[in-house]
Amino acid sequence: MTKIELAAVVCFFMTSCQNIFNVDAISTADNPVIAHRGDWKKNGYPKNSIAALKQAIKNGYTGSEFDVRMTKDEVLIVTHDAEYADLVIEESNYEELSLHKLPNGEILPKLSDFLRAGMADNDSTAFFLELKPSKNKKRNIKMARKTLQLVEEVNAKSHIGYYISFSYEILKEIKKVSPNAKVQYLNGYKKPTELKHDKIDGLDYQINTFRRHPKWIEKAKKLDLKLNSWTVNKSEDIKFLLANKFDYITTDEPELALRLSKINTTNSDWNLVWSDEFDYSGKVDSTKWSYEIGLKRNQEKQFYTDSLKNVRVENGKLILEAHKEKINNPQFESKDAKNWRKQWEYADYTSGSITTKNLAEWTYGRIEIKAKLPKGVGLWPAFWMLGENYSEVGWPECGEIDIMEHVGFDPDSIFGTIHTKSYNHMRGTEKGKSTFVEDPYDSYHIYSLLWTPEKMDFLLDGKVYNQIKNENKTTAEWPFDQNFHLKLNIAVGGMLGGREGIDDSSLPSAMIVDYVRVFQKQSDR
Asked: Broadest EC class (predicted)?
């Protein structure tokens, strides 16, 4: 080959690679679901098999992820582990490896065959191609270049969603050779600002990384970096990502993720700033909640405790549970004490109450809870807020927002109310409204507050049933331009809950909470 011919070949190769993504990509499905190693689980297909890939395409997921390695004779194959059939892939030729078929009878797929099979009758599922790194840097560089060249040769560029890798050098090489290629980093150690600086297009980190660094989510969005997370299989984790509006969710449970994505209705104008998805067990997260202890308000009959009997997290849910049981009151002085909390030697009931006071407080936003309510006459569950200046000015001057209250003697209704100096139940002037709720004890409902400087909307399952407007008078009418914290509790008896007595036979009875979330717009923060 002459120098001129060689130069022409090099020029063609570089031009092709530079233009790998200068074609129109396929229009992907309208969901965030990336089937991890294909949709293999339900039908028992081998992971990274063509059958699993085709199933992901058939089910209409946005993407299907698969793993690529390079054999000793530099054949690109689709497989995850460094060994296949007890053979080290980097030390074995493809011919030797291909003698061992996948459990469903497929030949170990070459990347070229895999891509061709995936492009057939597929105009909506993109490929998330993971390049598995070698310890040999030169092999990594060669694999990156060969992958780009192969994608060009089989005309697969329109179907490539992202190249992903745990190797930063592989991703940087891809961007060097083909600047328009899209890449996501998997390792979880790089901040969004570092990725942006190096022209990496997105974060594809384990979900625990995002939980440890929640600010990275917002930062990535500001930098226009795509958000992905692997491998997310629990419903509470999927809901966390949906609530945070991740672009992609890589999962072994694509059907579950798709179903949850279809019922996720969070308005795109809102950003999740705080939540508890209760994806842990035992005591509540002490960085988010503290316990109220003792006799508290409204001459209610329960003694709040931090016992797991009354407050616990299990199976991805928060449980607040009221019990009929006698408990000593350490505040007791005498039956003639001026403070009613010191008149009772013991309480006949225990229950749970938790709060975000001194841990998390907000001014304006969308605050919501998804929960089943406790059943029983005399029970008074509530999801509500108090102003941060309660200790200085007291109630009702601090303001109170009852996002959801329910009383057991009125089993098919809930109500949303505000209390202020001018409008409160002690004067009979509180502003509130009730609405019908169907089957609140056995079905989950979403109870929400939409709070702006101009008004408050109280919502049941996304529908406004009460609106209270700011009259623009004084803080006596509207003290709601300051931070408020959350409270979540089950009261027993009391001035409202106990109006028709207490049915002890209904106890124990629990409120079961799927999640609590706080959203804000950028202008609210």
From this structure: hydrolase
- β-pair type (463-469, 455-460): antiparallel
- Asked, as a colleague might, if the bond just before 479 is cis with ω within 30 of 0, I would say no
Q: Provide the 10 A C-beta neighbour count for residue 326.
A: 11
Domain that holds residue 392: 290-524
pLDDT of residue 426: 85
Catalytic annotation on 405?
A: yes
pLDDT at 521: 85
Distance CA 420, CA 482 (A): 13
For residue 49, what are its two tokens? 């098999």
Dihedral (Cα; 436, 441, 444, 448), 10-degree rounding? 50
Distance, in Å, from the CA atom of 501 to the CA atom of 493, rounded to the nearest integer, reads: 7
- Determine contact, residues 62/259, Cβ cutoff 8 Å: no
382 and 449 co-located in one domain = yes
Residue 333 and residue 397 share a domain: yes
Identify whether 274 is part of a domain: no
Token output for 227: 């958000």
The confidence score (pLDDT) of residue 240 equals: 87
- Nearest CA-CA partner of 56 in 197, 252, 319: 252
Are 131 and 203 within one domain?
Answer: yes
Cα distances (Å, whole numbers) of residue 43 to 39, 67, 236:
8, 20, 24
Residue 494, token pair as written in the block: 């009391």
Same domain, 246 and 119: yes
Q: pTM for this structure? A: 0.65
Q: In terms of Cα–Cα distance, which of 205, 188, 281 is closest to 244?
A: 205
Determine which one of 345, 400, 471, 477 is catalytic: 400
Burial 90-117 (b: 16+ CB within 10 A, else e): eebebeebbeeebeeebebbbbbbbbeb
In terms of domains, do 42 and 131 share one?
A: yes
* Tokens at 82, concatenated: 């460094």
Considering the domain boundaries, does residue 22 fall inside one? no
Q: What is the 3-state secondary structure (H, E, C) of 263-301?
A: HCCCCCCCEEEEEECCCCCECCCCCCCEECCECCCCCCC
Over the chain (525 residues), the average pLDDT of each successive run of 10 is: 43 42 74 98 97 98 99 98 98 98 98 98 97 97 98 98 98 98 97 98 96 91 97 89 94 94 66 86 96 96 98 96 97 94 96 97 96 98 97 94 98 97 90 96 97 97 96 94 98 95 97 94 73
pLDDT tens-digit readout, 375-407:
999 999 999 999 999 999 999 999 999 999 999
- Which residue among 65, 292, 388, 405 is the active-site one? 405
Same domain for 298 and 227 = no
Distance (Å) of CA 142 to CA 112, 167, 371: 16, 13, 54
Split into its structural domains, the chain has a count of: 2
Residue 96 annotated among the catalytic residues of the structure: no
